[in-house]
Amino acid sequence: MKKQIKNSIFLLIAVPFLFMGCQKSEVMDDAQKANPNSEGSQTLKSTITYCGTPLNANLVDFEETIIAGTAVIGNDETKLYVSYELTGDWWIQNAVLFAGPADSAGLIHPDGSGQFAPWYWNPPYRHDFFPWDFTQTHTFEVDLSTLDNCFTVVAYIYSKNLVTGEHKYIWGKSVTKVSGYYLEYCKQSCTTPPPPPLGGCETGYAYGESYANCFLNIPGVNSNNWGWSNGQIGAGNYTWPIYAGAGQCNIGNGTLVGYLQVNYAPPTATVTYSMLDGYIMNVTHLYVGTQILPKKKNKFITAPGQFPYKHCNLNGASFDTFTINGLSGSIYVVAHSEVCDDI
User: Fold this and answer.
1) CB of 61 closer than 8 Å to CB of 68
2) I need a surface site. Which of 71, 139, 289, 310 has the fewest CB within 10 A?
3) DSSP conformation class of 111
4) Mean pLDDT score, 156-166
5) How high is the pLDDT of residue 132?
6) pTM over 0.85
7) Alpha carbon distance 37, 140 (integer Å)
């Protein structure tokens, strides 16, 4: 109860000052229009080639009652990109960004809680959308050379639900902070190290992460083969890493060699193998079905050569695709490949 009262007081105090901040930023918005590459751009950048791994964060209201979209933070060799994308009926009215040292621009973290006082805050990057020009996407671009190696990001939006007319202040929220409505980001290296060699060819399997079931742990399976049956999954799009040489299903001993994409729209599943640079495939074997593994003579089998779908003689392919029809309900996917060094 005390927390709810505290949050309510916070919002009552913060809202008028946030509107004052909107008025003070109109000149800055003109600067954005004059120099959009340094101050902001009006569309989501869909062709960014990020260095390393971008940071993804949910955009939530202060009480965390909704997830209105996502913020993606990443960089290439010269720029930081912070992209907002709202979903459903939520649209952007004002997009605001802070990127820099946590102790600058009046950004305050009292008692280390991670909450800050926005009424003291003058955001350096801002873009306003007129009522007839709302958008669900927006990308800010910042000169990477102006930022330290690691810095704080506040991704903030004043949003409107165009169906209910409701307004919400929403923020990029880190899952590692209980109450902190700010994010921490470090520049990602743009130098790609050479892939570790396999020393020839190795067995590779798609690892479905939270959906992965190691052969060795599946009841009723008597096998010395390692690998994963991934599922059950419903309709949707899934991307899973492919590991080679991960004996006993230990990915720590394996090598990441590619990714498997599964697009399941009943009654059809499209399964695509994609190798990383430095690796190729000679053979792929695939099982897709409603049972956790294929069966032969009423026994589960893990030998990939007995899987129902296979492409042999790929002769060093980097990509391979299967289209499986006649599916329904929840399914499992077992994706095997023979992966080799591309030499």
Assistant:
1) yes
2) 310
3) G
4) 91
5) 65
6) no
7) 8
Distance CA 215, CA 234 (A): 21
Strand partners, 343: none
Structure tokens at 156: 């903030």
pLDDT tens-digit series, residues 21-48: 333 322 223 332 222 222 233 344 557 8
SS3 helix, strand, coil % of the chain, rounded to 5?
Answer: 15, 45, 40
Per the prediction, the chain carries an average pLDDT of 81
Calculate the alpha carbon distances from 236 to 98, 209, 259, 269, 272 in Å. 34, 16, 16, 10, 14
- Neighbour tally for 106: CB within 10 Å: 14
Q: Is 222:322 a contact under the CB 8 Å cutoff?
A: no
Domain positions in the chain: 2-186, 201-341
Whether residue 42 is preceded by a cis peptide bond, meaning omega within 30 degrees of 0, is no
Calculate the CA 10 to chain-centre distance: 31
3-state secondary structure 6-37: HHHHHHHHHHHHHHHHHHHCHHHHHHHHHCHH
Asked if 250 and 231 touch (Cβ cutoff 8 Å), the reply is no
pLDDT in tens, 197-222: 999 999 999 999 999 999 999 998 98
Identify the three-state secondary structure at position 253.
Answer: helix
CB 288 within 8 A of CB 269: yes
